[in-house]
Write a structure and sequence with these properties.
The chain is elongated. The chain is of the alpha/beta class. 41% of the residues lie in helices and 19% in strands. Bound molecules: glutamine.
Length: 291
């Protein structure tokens, strides 16, 4: 029988195995794996460092490491990903929500007050991470979220239920906003925006685990913006705002699409890495074509 390990020994072994497999954030990932299997957060793990762990826990951690070193991302192994401080269920039918996308949530939260009543529409909602995070922080807000994939909407529904916002979030299967007649204070989207050339060179942990449907934005990467932007002025209340995530090299063409859609106050926002990441614009309060 193999020797029983303490939690800190297991942690060290895990880190070593992950590092040897070329995983850069080995120590962080080791903590996350232990958190997942023991339910102890990182400070609790420190307090329990000398506890002897059970054979079952050791086996679970082994199984996870084996999957991880073949390239499977941790969020897919766990079945959830943290976004804006909340856990979101994910699977192969939805994009695993990325930290850059938290900027969209931040911007809406920054422009509204806690008790404000307002509405959001999320186009291509995937896991539902964007509108659910907003509704968690804004208890008077309501929203609608659209996705073309019924399998993605199943996950979004589970996340809305889990986070207790299902009554305030209307989930709709559809092709962008083709069937929507209502107007919203905010229209949001992190659409698929990867072009053909970049699709062919994606890192394996993206290519093998995130769905193509959530990534591929057509030959030039802009097809979704071309589909969405003509719908924006019908979808926004006067003064309403559109906030769209973009690829690092797409600010110019997307801004010009928003201009054609008669939005004003067009802005490009950079992410923490200094890359263009979000464009925003506003529908004018009054029609500019007064006679
Ligand atoms: N809105 C979801 C997210 O940002 C899904 C986006 C997508 O599938 N392209 O995570």
């Amino acid at each position: 029988m193999s020797k029983l390990l303490t939690l800190s020994e297991l942690r060290r072994n895990l880190s070593r195995q992950l590092l040897a497999a070329g995983i850069e954030a080995a120590s962080l990932e080791a903590s996350l794996i232990l958190e997942f299997i023991t339910q102890l957060d990182r400070s609790e793990q420190i307090l329990a460092a000398e506890d002897v762990i059970s054979a079952a826990t050791a086996k679970k951690s082994n199984d996870i490491v084996e999957r991880r070193i073949t390239g499977e991302p941790l969020d897919h192994i766990f079945g959830f990903r943290e976004f804006y401080g909340f856990d979101f269920r994910i699977n192969k039918h939805v994009l695993s929500p990325r930290p850059e996308t938290e900027m969209i949530v931040d911007m809406v939260i920054g422009k509204t007050d806690k008790e404000q009543k307002f509405t959001v529409l999320d186009l291509g909602t995937g896991s539902g991470a964007i509108p659910i995070s907003i509704l968690k922080h804004r208890p008077q807000a309501k929203g609608a979220a659209i996705d073309v994939s019924p399998l993605a909407l199943e996950i979004a529904a589970q996340n809305a239920d889990h986070h207790k916002v299902a009554e305030r979030l209307h989930l709709i299967e559809g092709n962008w906003a083709d069937d929507i007649q209502t107007q919203f204070d905010f229209v949001l989207s992190n659409p698929p925006y990867i072009d053909k050339e970049h699709m062919e060179n994606l890192p394996r942990d993206v290519a093998d685990y995130d769905p193509d449907l959530a990534l591929f934005g057509g030959e030039n990467g802009l097809e979704c913006y071309e589909a969405i932007s003509p719908q924006l002025s019908h979808l926004l209340v006067p003064g309403g705002q559109a906030i769209l995530e973009i690829g690092y090299n797409q600010a110019k063409p997307v801004i010009s699409l928003l201009k054609q859609a008669a939005l004003v106050d067009l802005q490009v926002h950079q992410d923490l890495a200094g890359l263009d990441r979000i464009v925003s614009g506003r529908k004018p309060c009054e029609a500019s074509t007064k006679i």
